[in-house]
Specification:
Order of helices and strands: HEHHEHEHEEHEHEEEHHHHEEHEEEH
Strand order of the largest sheet: 2-9-8-7-6-3-4-5
Helix content: 40-55%
Largest sheet: 8 strands, mixed
Radius of gyration: 22 Å
Shape: globular
Structural class: alpha/beta
Number of strands: 14
Amino acid sequence: MLQEFLREPTSQLVIEPGVIDLTWGHVDPALLPATALQAAAAAALARPRAIALGYGHERGPASLRAWLAERIARREGRAPRSAELMLTGGTSWAIDQVCALLTQPGDVVLVESPTYHLAVRILRDHPLELWPVPRDAAGIDPAVVAHLLHRAAASGRRVAFLYTVPTFHNPTGDSLPTACREALLALAARERLLILEDDVYRDLAFDGAAPPSLWSGDAADTVLRLGSFAKTVAPSLRLGWMTGPAALVSRIAGCGVLDSGGAPSFFSAMIVAEYCAVGAYERHVARLTAAYAARATALVAALAPSLSAGMRLRPPAGGFFAWIELPQDASLAALGRAAAAQRVAVLDGARFHLQPAARPALRLAFSLYDVPELLEGAARLARAFTMLNDMME
């Protein structure tokens, strides 16, 4: 029996030897703060009455919630009240709970397209109907959202919420322009549309502060914002947080799962509380943003000379990803074969669309590899582009 378990992979991350795999949006293990988290875990376990090992308060430890509230107020200009903030078992857990507790079977969910493809998988675990909202470099057109809301109302359908990753988007790396954010908030206030804001990359801004969150500009209680420690501390903590309307946050905090089991990821939350209390979070995020900015810059610069007519590479200003749009007639299947021949893996942009994509594209993740490996990956991908161009001529 033991051997059966040992044959199973320990990590979700599996890469073929010799391949530079730009498909994985994972944290580089070399950047994980293992020593600091070990010290924080020891401090958490030294707390009286082994608090860290018990059932936690349904909203998470008060110390971490207080730290988050103060930091959010300082950085975003809006302080969440106690009833508007809770810790979560990560963003995936939070999306699943939103679907379970705030939707009804048959509801419509508006989803930007392209978008985070694994969030779509979570949404599809529920009896919901997903309607795509096109997104491009100009953002989401509020007129399209309004049209879909009116279409749903005319057919007697309820729109549960709009899902968007407005800042350092997965997969494109871009952010919604200010005018688009303001128009979406105005529309949401007018139509009483709930916006589910996936804001996990906010702290990974490469040049100055990230754009204001939708939640920070929400005066009408229409935004439920999700944050995470997965990208900035460690994924296996399975720890995140949400800010939003008190009634909705309280509905999730008061659910049966938390009544029975207490706070999700409570031990992780106690560790992170100790980690943040000594200033380790801010120091680590500064290290991460410097590393990821250098990687993004190197990858974009290395690929730029290989881009032919009809190709466009969007330089990211934060997060984990860069996005390359290809000529309309480019064959992604042929490019995939060329990339495989060069021992580099890339992700087809079609995976991130709910409807057929307007044009072929690739998502490139730069978070996992250091600069020398990314430069080698870019060289291999450039050779694959040359092979594709030769086939298209």
